[in-house]
């Protein structure tokens, strides 16, 4: 026990509570056939909650945590103690981490591997003792200066090799800890300037690297899902995994669309010029929706603000697309969100998660009800009903040709008339649920 | 002869001229083995220069052209007269048009076809008499209210059929006029709200439609290139052909990446959050670079401003990527640019094109010299030189595995050190050419 | 009676209704001491609902209204009939219009004046017969080509004079109809390019013009408020009334900060890089908050989308700032919102307003409760409590000097420690109300 | 001598040089009556070039400088040695610094003051020995955690007092070193959330603080200019000194518009949705143009990228507005630009500045020639010529009234016709100079 959260009692479901409590998230309440906890699959992100110090490009650490700067294994263990205390207070079923979050980097590659394995032992013990499960693990291939020009896409082949060694270790640790997914976020897989960049070469490197990660996953018997996390830019000017559509083209190129899915983050969707629900719906349509990083980007700020989600109607639309795509299988709701740097206190960290979990719960419940009542889907089906007609189906079938369709249109002298898209009526309908 | 431009003499190359002249564009000057005219392959866009009336969402027509409103065939011919006069004044080798630009829509589909063919006869005559060639033709499947919910992606199968008939006619007219490409810009192939949209269905419709266009092209013996023009949004909230990477994934999905290329517009690249040179370089790397719509979007305006290009350093970077990809084959430089709505006079239209052609010529000449002198490419090759080593090549070859690479990295105890990316030095180098 | 809405019954408050009804807006419910109708003061915008044809920059009219194109006085009266039928169905207490919305422009300035006065007679009759009141009138000084380079800021003094004549007439009509405000939106008061613009001269023109409008208001005994509506850009590249802060500086420059207030639009706030609540809070702090144009801009679209509001939490924050500033006096909630161009039907127009009024009502009720319960304000006051200390007050008082404050700080050897800003806790608190 | 730049010779003007040289910046060349060095008044920014370590939000230090981490006075002196070596290599006439850049913060306020004074002694000696002059000094009131909620606008009065003490010391040091300006950039003078913010109170604090700084300047006899540096956001969500127009309104409110000018940064202008030349032209029109921070923001990145300028046409437009406003008096061209974090080498730092100085020199020379040849200004004057007429002047004069102008317009039956704004022709004209 770390003692850091000793003033804060475990949070429970109590809609009438005046103080800290879940007012909407009731883990055991059954919705769509399973408990909310299994529907939402909440995870805490180790990095934001236990590693980030409150700095930004114009100022340094604001937070005062007893385990900072966590540059020794002893402090890393103290941090783990605090983290697991925190997981217990929230009652979350999952957590997520990067290697870099949980152990200080060693003087050598070997020492870094060793330290990660030692911390994994600590985690394993805590997990066995009732701690949460691992939603996903990942390797941080972007913070150290060796990665400044990319990891798999680095112009230096040794960085590619170094990355391979690191990913192998973290993937195996993830496997050992029962992780349900493994994530690759290409923080530096992109470029700062086209003038020094060979995109074709770097794309090839990225494709081969990912293929080998998939192969290794099978070799070691890891049953979890490999996930790519799209982001358009920041830290680099342009990141290769720009958005869902871009990742899909990349996967197709290397024949990996059946092996790899996406981990979609609200903030990254916004930065790419999309709504969160767009990215989710597209991934659903393409069959590559894996998991989500739930947070909120400030619409007026042009960088990744990673705020805790706080807008229920938006959250409802997100979960609606997830449910339309069948809900989570190995994926879940990871809070890739950080406190504002002025939120200094332990209470802030707990309250931020509690509020976010409630926002998600409200959104999810609205989404589930919308789906069950089927009004929205009924209207959608009606809009496309014409395509159910055999003549219409035939136009999309293999034998169809432009000239045959054109001949028929000309012969019929068609003059199709538009019908209302009813957007405002649909928006009103959604507002009856949220 | 229309008389509209009767005060304006044909523009010629004269670097010392005080008045209207090309100061940089010398069509006959040989660069990289061919005349500038063949390198740049300039085209005038019929729609902006002869159809747009100067309106915007907050006000109507400002231009006063004798052929407006061009709602009769006689006025359409008057417009054609003016257009070909204009082409002659500029001496451009190409023009581009939509069906909708050149003839008033008929009361029926058949009449629309017929009118297009009649105008095509007029064009053919003028082209034979020394007019420019056709860089590309295209069908406007977005202005008429029947297309308000999409053309190929419309929920109404009859609109799909109507679009097929229209595209067949325009493709065949393009073929008849010797067009070198055929473009599809999906102005309404997207959605206004996800709430009424079935993206999977619409994607299928778009894929089948494009496949049939390709098939029809071969059937009629059209040797030109089929081009898709990416744009992220506007008029719709989200357009399916968002950017080059998105189009690539779509082409891969339908097995069309060897059949279809992209027509990239500077303004659309900007709206998608990319630089123009990024989109060109990516298309080059993916082997789908076809043609360009040259213009300039205001970086501070969030809509498609379609201004004439006026920044030489940016233009140089664009042509540099085009040259790195091998230069134009069937493609060219189409000015998809319109006058500001306060630029009322015939002289404005001529001067805008002359200035733009000079800006392109300056950019192209700088790009050609950069490529010939090979300094930039030399530095790029040096940066990736490590990947020429057989051990490095082996890591990307089919037999490689994550575990083998990791074992080797561990055994070697590598600690790769970063080297400078030299961005500012490269930017300085470029500035010596522009 | 127009007959256009004959299928649609007047909408009433019925929280349990299955069909078209107000579920949250109960005009007679008393909140904060007055009925909701008087708190919210809803108005319908004539232009979007009865003039806009569904066009956008890439396509023309989609709506099919019997009064289109409204280019005769008879059609203008038919439109007025439909508009007042619509007002009655909604039961809104107010409407707003531009001169340009309600009458076809005349062949001469005199005829335009005359036509406006004739339509004003029609309105007066309908208003006397139980129609809504006029929240504000305004002159359209941006659609006609004469205004393409500005109205008050035009380089041509005759356009300035023409604008003066037009504003006089519309201001007097507004006064005659009992309008409670008069709005100036400077749609073309800005520039397309700095290269041809004299900002100092144009600022002087704008300042003098506004000063004369204020003087004329007093001369004719108009008791309503003169409002400027900020917008950063579109249609022009840069508009002089960029945002609230910019307007404030302009008013100060011409000594008008006590005479003129602002009409703040959500969509314009977003386009200027601000949140709606920011603009409202700033105007409140500066004492110039007048009225609002309620709508919603798509956060992913860079132009003015003018959608109906549909996000309750955002609406709640907006009304919270309005209430903190004392609530509306002469101002109100004008729906400067238009249907999506695919929403073709009369029912769409009614439903869009009903949904929007409900969203506003929900937001307002949450805001009122937050204010009454005073938790948020209590926390805010506590944060600044240190400034209540006399020593702190003295630092802000006239006699204070940098050297005295610095001497004291040095002598005391202060080392101030940060305290949590509690942002997430405050956001959670807000979420308990919405 | 630091030895850090020992491999690099002083850079001189040599248009034909192959290696590192000024190709365009010739400090002694007389333009518009004075040497280029006096026109451009270049300054190096201490913070980016000697303090920034290459970190970003996703990774730490990449640069390897012998004086890092500069947390002792000895290392601070080693850094000063390197900085002055660098100034000598470039031959720049000015430099700029924050207190925080040049000395490690002390354990107490008093020690911080003392350390700054000791470093100032070092600077004074180096400046006397031929080093550059001080363009401006400034206090860093944003990096330390005590400022996380603002400096002058902090809810804690002690932070206000601490800031006053700090500014007094830095202002006096600036005065002692002969600084020609003193800058205030309100890095944390803004808010993260409106929910905990009292904008009216914070505005009052900021106004009083600035008033006292101005008073103190006079008290100590500092003849330099007090400058505010606008920025819209980052690090905070909203910064009070948003842009030039906002600062102007603030200055007017506190009667400081005759005392304080603005230091305009290209990157900040872009982030606020303006062009650089807009902010310069507006400040010129308002009489508050002071100095510039020259850099370039990536148009596709939503945060402050602080790149070295590299686009000559844009730079030309900026200097053109500066020259139109009369050129610099106490202000100058400070490179508030940092290397990309992959540009590791000493040579990168030198080359980045050399390239930037050349880009500025090219832009300045083009601007000067445009101004001298007066074509652009001639066209601008012609556009507004109508306002020279006595009747037009009378409309703007004090006695004018809306009703008199309207009566005259009505009587004359005016129907003003638009004339071309000639934007493209003007852009072409500019392109003849750049």
From TrEMBL, chains A, B, C, D:
Location, primary (coarse class): cytoplasm
Subcellular location: Cytoplasm
Catalytic activity, EC: 5.3.1.5
Gene designation per UniProt: xylA
Residues involved in Mg(2+) 2 binding: 265, 268, 304, 306
GO cellular component terms, semicolon-separated: cytoplasm
Keywords: Carbohydrate metabolism, Cytoplasm, Isomerase, Magnesium, Metal-binding, Xylose metabolism
Cofactor(s) it depends on: Mg(2+)
GO biological process: D-xylose metabolic process
Protein name: Xylose isomerase
Catalytic activity: alpha-D-xylose = alpha-D-xylulofuranose
GO molecular function: magnesium ion binding; xylose isomerase activity
Chain positions recorded as Mg(2+) 1 binding sites: 229, 265, 293, 336
Organism: Roseicitreum antarcticum
Residues the record marks as active site: 98, 101
Cofactor info, note text: Binds 2 magnesium ions per subunit.
């Amino acid at each position: 026990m770390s003692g850091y959260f000793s003033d804060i009692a475990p949070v429970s479901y109590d809609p009438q509570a005046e103080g800290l409590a879940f007012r909407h998230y009731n883990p055991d309440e059954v919705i769509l056939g399973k408990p909310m906890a299994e529907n939402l699959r909440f995870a805490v992100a180790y990095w934001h909650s236990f590693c980030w110090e409150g700095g930004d490009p114009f100022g340094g650490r604001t937070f005062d945590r007893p385990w900072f700067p966590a540059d020794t294994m002893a402090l890393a263990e103290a941090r783990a103690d605090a983290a697991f205390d925190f997981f217990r207070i929230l009652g979350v079923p999952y957590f997520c981490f990067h290697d870099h979050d949980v152990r200080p980097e060693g003087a050598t590659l070997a020492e870094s591997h060793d330290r990660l394995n030692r911390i994994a032992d600590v985690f394993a013990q805590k997990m066995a003792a009732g701690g949460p499960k691992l939603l996903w693990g990942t390797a941080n291939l972007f913070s150290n200066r060796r990665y400044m020009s990319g990891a798999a896409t680095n112009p230096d082949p040794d960085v590619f090799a170094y990355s391979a060694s690191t990913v192998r270790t973290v993937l195996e640790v993830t496997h050992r800890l029962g992780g349900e997914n493994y994530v690759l976020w290409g923080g530096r897989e992109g470029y700062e300037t086209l003038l020094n960049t060979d995109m074709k070469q770097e794309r090839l490197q990225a494709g081969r690297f990912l293929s080998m990660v998939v192969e290794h996953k099978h070799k070691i018997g890891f049953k979890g899902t490999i996930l790519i996390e799209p982001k358009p830019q920041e830290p680099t000017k342009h990141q290769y995994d720009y958005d869902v559509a871009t990742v899909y083209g990349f996967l197709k190129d290397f024949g990996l669309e059946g092996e790899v899915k996406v981990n979609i983050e609200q903030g990254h969707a916004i930065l790419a010029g999309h709504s969160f629900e767009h990215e989710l719906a597209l991934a659903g349509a393409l069959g590559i929706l894996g998991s989500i990083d739930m947070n909120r980007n400030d619409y007026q700020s042009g960088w990744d603000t990673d705020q805790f989600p706080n807008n229920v109607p938006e959250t409802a639309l997100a979960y609606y697309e997830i449910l339309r795509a069948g809900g989570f299988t190995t994926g879940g709701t990871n809070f890739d969100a950080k406190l504002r740097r002025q939120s200094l206190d332990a209470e802030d960290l707990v309250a931020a998660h509690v509020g976010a979990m409630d926002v998600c719960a409200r959104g999810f419940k609205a989404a589930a009800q919308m789906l069950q009542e089927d009004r929205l889907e009924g209207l959608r089906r009606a809009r496309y009903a014409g395509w159910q007609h055999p003549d219409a189906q035939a136009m999309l079938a293999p034998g169809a040709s432009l000239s045959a369709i054109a001949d028929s249109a000309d012969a019929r002298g068609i003059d199709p008339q538009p019908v209302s898209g009813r957007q405002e009526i649909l928006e009103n309908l959604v507002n009856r649920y949220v």
